[in-house]
Design brief:
Blueprint lengths: L11 H6 L29 E3 L9 H14 L2 E5 L5 H15 L3 H5 L10 E5 L9 E8 L19 H26 L8 H6 L1 E9 L11 E4 L5 E6 L4 E4 L5 E3 L8 E4 L1 H6 L9 E3 L7 E7 L9 E3 L5 E3 L4
Helix pairs in contact: 2-5, 3-5
The protein binds 2-oxoglutaric acid and fe (ii) ion.
Amino acid sequence: MEKQGECSSTSVKTLNESGLSYVPQRFVLPSLQRPDPSLNHSADLPTVDLSTLHQPFLRTVAINGIQKACKEFGFFQVINHGIPNSVMNDALEVAMDFFNLPIKEKMLLLSANVHEPVRYGSSLNQVRDKVQFWRDFIKHYSQPICKWIHLWPANPPSYKEKMGNYAKAGQVLYKQLVEVVIEGLGLEANYLQDEIEEGSQVVATNYHPACPQPELTLGMPPHSDYGSLTILLQSCQGLQILDCNKNWIPVPVAEGAPIFQLQDQLEVMSNGLYKSVVHRVTLSPEKNRLSIASSQPTFEQENGASTSARGQTTPSDLQ
Ligand SMILES: O=C(O)CCC(=O)C(=O)O
Ligand SMILES: [Fe+2]
């Protein structure tokens, strides 16, 4: 049992590396909120082949596939999306290198101020169950790269190049996907073009260390996200979605096939036709897990901030 104050100044990654064999009391969830460790069948997620988008006679096949996936699941995998595997793997690898930096170095980026373009968060002062995360906010992706490139952390040295390449490729794919999703609603493909070009890109990198008692806790609590679409890369399984029968279903991980996840703004825009699905992250007893969630909130609030279901905000006027 954790003593008062125990662990309160140490990251969960550090605790894990010190060989802790139990989950500190403050992370233990009430029994009804705990994951069921016997769940092992993955969701049969729809897979959308984007190569058909560029073939005039087959474009409607892709649009119909995406429309069906958005209505039924809110989550789908994409293949032939144009982002080389090497770019995705480099991003995951360099993110892992970042989290493996000495804690002292990462602490320099620690901030509870959501207006920081690059910040390293810990479960100590932010979302209770979210172990560590940091966010990049990029305003106006169409502006010259030099406007935001200095926002990357200086270490690891290849971070800027590798995560930057992934972020740029993700923007192109994001725009294509939003157009198709919008067309599926019977609107002009460029209906949201201005909002997308004015919006900010958020790249959230989540690190979930292996856990000695994964049946007692979660890496991330159940939530939906406030944006329009997220592109998600995962290093291994852990994500679960809540189906219409209120069962948690594990999401598969397929090499080279990122997950697309529909978010609250598109559920609202489609009058509920498309689903922003509640999801959560479970922990593994052996593997440290990494995910990169890249999204672009399409509509910002009047005060220039977008608020997520988890209470985080992103500035819309970051330069
Ligand atoms: O780690 C994951 O797979 C999911 C991350 C997520 O849900 C989020 O960042 O909002
Ligand atoms: Fe999420």
